[in-house]
Specification:
By secondary structure, the protein is α+β, with helices and mostly antiparallel strands. Helix content is 36%, strand content 36%. The protein has an 8-stranded mixed sheet. Strand 4 and strand 5 form a beta hairpin. It is globular and about 50 Å long.
Length: 169
């Protein structure tokens, strides 16, 4: 298993999908100049939930993810980790792993929901190694210093060329 970190969330207007980009934290620690990224296509509603979690936003009334976390707390449970365990075509499968009184409880969950919850609780996110071998792309850092704007522009150009078919076998 590889620990993953959220590299970025790319929002798009409908009907285009949004993209959650995860980066292998293990690869990055070993060689910052070359690591792997795992793009996951998500809908605009799911991307909004992820964005709220990434920005640590709180609202006067609880959102669905807040309600779920409040329920977990009331049941004396917490999020232990998220595991992306399978991919079929462009569809990723994950488990939300809860810890309650020393036991682990695994729940099937969409990666977007599981990751949004993990981000709110600072829980780790993992992906199976074979999934990275099959579905990741190299993320190469330039040796020359580029501004954040230039890096973002290059990344957006890369994403313009990526299609959902690139993720099929």
């Amino acid at each position: 298993m590889q620990e993953m970190k959220v590299l970025t969330l790319i929002m798009a207007s409908a009907p285009s999908p949004c993209i959650l980009v995860l980066q292998s934290a293990d690869d990055f620690q070993e060689n910052p100049a070359a690591s792997r990224i795992l793009p996951i296509w998500v809908g605009p509603n799911e991307a909004t939930g992820l964005g709220v979690s990434l920005e640590h936003l709180r609202f006067i009334r609880p959102m669905t993810h807040d309600l779920f976390l409040d329920a977990l707390t009331s049941l004396d449970a917490m999020i232990d980790h998220v595991l992306i365990y399978d991919v079929k075509g462009t569809v990723f499968y994950s488990r939300l792993v809860l810890r309650q009184h020393g036991r682990l409880i695994e729940l099937d969950a969409r990666p977007s929901d599981a990751i949004a919850l993990a981000l709110r609780e600072n829980a780790p996110i993992f992906a199976e190694e074979w999934i990275l071998d099959k579905s990741s792309y190299p993320y190469l850092l330039n040796e020359t210093e580029l501004s954040e704007e230039e890096q973002l522009s290059q990344f957006h150009k890369f994403l313009e060329q990526v299609t959902p078919e690139d993720f099929t076998e």
